[in-house]
Amino acid sequence: MQSGLRGFAARAVRGVQRQQQRRMGAGPPGGYFAEGVQGEGHVNGRLFNETPPPPGQSRKWEDWEAPWYATMAAVGAILVFGLSAKPETSGSEWAREEAKRRLAASGK
Question: pLDDT tens-digit profile of 3-15?
Answer without folding.
Answer: 777 777 777 767 6
